[in-house]
Task: structure prediction
Amino acid sequence: MDNSNAGVNMNRPLTSQGFEGTIGRTLADSEPHFEIPPHPGADSPNVVVVLLDDTGFAQFGCFGSDIDTPNVDALAANGLQYTIWATGSASSGISIFVQNDKLFIDYNSFDERTVLESELPVPQGDSVLGASLARSSRTTDTMSLTIDGKPAGSVDLPFMMRMISSLGASVGMDFGSQVSLHYDDTFPFDGTLHQVEIQLGQRFRKDTEAAAKSEMSRQ
Result:
């Protein structure tokens, strides 16, 4: 004799805590219940996260791949992400790039990295993006970013390399082993790069004064 159902009225629909439907003996005796997921509101933006596993930038048509990826290319056409200027390699170097509509500068000092992300977004269309490194002492530095002349963030650099790399600079892509861990492969520029201007700043003030005194002593 099976007493497993002893004391239980099997003709009464079963319910569980938080479940507002009923579970009957058959489908006809049951009533489904689906919880309504929370919603941030009618004015909230639509955000879609696309996760692609085991791929790199070299697999997308928008970055020069032979693989046809029209949907990803269309998304890239409406966004901004590319390398503007880079020098060095994965061991040490500097990379200035745009990713997810933000301007970045990645200072890689022998795998000790200082990454600065702009506080302002990069607007669609033509814009003037600036990145500067200004010595605060013989070994320290301050990195800062500007977008269309507006300050977009700064950070102190704990160590300023005297020599970055023997590799030359590349414009519009990261030609060597990528300087930054924020992207893969060459991360090429896919828009219109009108001009890249590099200005050499003045040396640290104490160095300038020492050089001036040395020059005066020769006269």
Notes: Strands lie at 82-88, 93-99, 102-109, 112-121, 129-135, 141-147, 150-157, 169-171.
